[in-house]
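From the methods appendix. Each design record in this collection lists the tokenized structure first, followed by the designed amino acid sequence. Records were kept in a plain field format so they could be parsed without special tools. The example shown here is representative of the layout used throughout.

RECORD:
FOLD TOKENS (486 positions):
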């Protein structure tokens, strides 16, 4: 899929007035971000010091959230209990302006997953699971009536909490097929017949092995495809982590290689993003293969985020803009994206350093400087002058190397974690957005000469000066080249 096809996708999404209907189990994902600095005096266990908390939509609610972030219309049918988690979920749905039809269940609890996170690592997950939900015949009838000609695609988001019984799944699929609406299923359990006659079922590898009753390491492809044919499922889409996505259909058996993310922070929610992006692509009139290409890109994007964060159109636009230009590095961020990433890193207790410069003709002095800067921080962000800003500062003959190639070379350094272009004379806008712990410059500056030295005090940051290798400069190299040419 190239940018031209992606632009067509956006057009089709915009003009399709139908809804994508998501039916299934919702849950509340709660994140506790903090650090571990000591052992409890009460027992030999670590003390987790909570610095911040965050509530996010999980399960079928996260699927809908992904769809609306893609720009498509979507609605949700599910159930919650009348408890605190249920109230938080409803408020999140309201904030996201998600159209929902929620069935309230008494004497139950809303499924809640609490994750304690240190750095970019989950330390512990606590699950508070709903008891098996029992729907009345009237409630089932109301759900089935939601399947109508105003719907383009249906997603059954099954987390095994009892909302999607085999009987209800089959009734939904039967009516959807009658209305010629494709049904995508994110499955649970070991009985694939529950989803018989669906357009597509999207198990991960573990779920696929459960369907086939085969152990890991044993070839299961033929058995899985046989089950697909037996149950009249048009497509089985097996997600397989870093190995990408496997498609089994009447037309072909094909593997779609994974798209490498910028950095892997959290794989939770990846399955939701995959099925959401497939649904949106089908909603826009794309075929299954083009839909899976988009799904791979979405999966690669979502695992670079913390927690169950939805993928947005802006995320996908960034991917296509980056890959259509000569900037192919996965370390290059836009300002808004960098601000969000910096906020996530701070929640994890990471120290952020910021430095900036032209880096026109990279030399050993640059490399040494950046290595020393990185030693003092967990995450080093480099603000890189654009070509136009360098011309303003150094004259029309500079830069020697254009911004795309400068960024590519700098991206190859392990010391540089992220690069953000800035077009102004100074990076003050970047500094205010990122709010790093350390502003880093060479010792040819004095602290009071460093741009941002006043501002950084507002968030208790510091200016750090790094020793430079004497005599190393791009200007000297350029002068030497010019002299040798005379």
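DESIGN:
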């Amino acid at each position: 899929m190239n940018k031209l096809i992606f632009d067509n996708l956006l057009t089709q999404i915009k003009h399709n007035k139908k809804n994508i209907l998501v039916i299934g189990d919702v849950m509340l994902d709660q994140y506790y971000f903090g650090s571990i600095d000591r052992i409890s005096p009460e027992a030999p266990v670590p003390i987790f010091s909570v610095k911040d908390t965050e509530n996010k939509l999980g399960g079928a609610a996260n699927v809908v959230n992904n769809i609306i972030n893609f720009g498509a219309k979507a609605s949700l049918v599910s159930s919650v209990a009348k408890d605190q988690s249920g109230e938080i979920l409803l408020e999140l749905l309201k904030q996201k302006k998600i159209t929902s039809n929620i069935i309230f269940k008494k004497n139950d609890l809303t499924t809640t997953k609490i994750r304690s996170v240190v750095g970019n690592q989950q330390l512990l997950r606590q699950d508070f699971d709903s008891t098996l939900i029992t729907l009345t015949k009237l409630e089932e009838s109301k759900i089935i009536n939601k399947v109508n000609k105003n719907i383009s695609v249906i997603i059954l988001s099954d987390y095994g909490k009892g909302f999607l019984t085999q009987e209800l799944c089959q009734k939904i699929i039967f009516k959807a097929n009658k209305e010629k609406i494709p049904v995508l299923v994110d499955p649970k359990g070991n009985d694939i017949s529950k989803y018989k006659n669906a357009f597509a079922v999207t198990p991960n590898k573990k779920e696929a092995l459960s369907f086939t009753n085969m152990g890991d390491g044993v070839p299961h492809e033929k058995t899985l495809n046989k089950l697909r044919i037996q149950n009249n499922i048009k497509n089985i889409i097996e997600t397989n982590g870093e190995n990408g996505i496997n498609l089994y259909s009447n037309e072909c058996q094909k593997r779609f290689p994974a798209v490498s993310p910028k950095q892997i922070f959290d794989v939770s929610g990846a399955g939701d993003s995959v099925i959401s992006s497939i649904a949106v692509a089908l909603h826009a009139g794309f075929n299954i293969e083009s839909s899976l290409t988009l799904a791979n890109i979405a999966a690669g994007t979502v695992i670079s985020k913390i927690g169950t964060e939805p993928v947005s159109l802006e995320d996908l636009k960034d991917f296509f803009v980056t890959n259509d230009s000569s900037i192919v590095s996965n370390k290059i961020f836009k300002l808004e994206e960098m601000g969000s990433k910096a906020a996530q890193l701070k929640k994890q207790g990471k120290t952020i350093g910021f430095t900036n410069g032209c880096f026109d003709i990279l030399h050993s002095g640059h490399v040494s400087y950046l290595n020393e800067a990185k030693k003092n921080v967990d995450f080093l962000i480099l603000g890189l002058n654009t070509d136009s800003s360098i011309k303003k500062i150094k004259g029309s003959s500079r830069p020697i190397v254009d911004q795309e190639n400068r960024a590519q070379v700098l991206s190859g350094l392990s010391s540089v974690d992220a690069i953000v272009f800035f077009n102004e004379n100074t990076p003050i806008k970047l500094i205010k957005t990122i709010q790093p712990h350390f502003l880093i410059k060479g010792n040819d500056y004095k602290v009071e000469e460093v741009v941002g030295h006043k501002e950084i005090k507002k968030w208790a940051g510091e200016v750090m000066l790094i020793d430079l290798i004497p005599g190393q400069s791009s200007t000297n190299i350029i002068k030497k080249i010019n002299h040798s040419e005379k």
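APPENDIX NOTE: Residues 3-324 form a domain with the UDP-N-acetylmuramoyl-L-alanine:D-glutamate ligase fold (CATH 3.40.1190.20).
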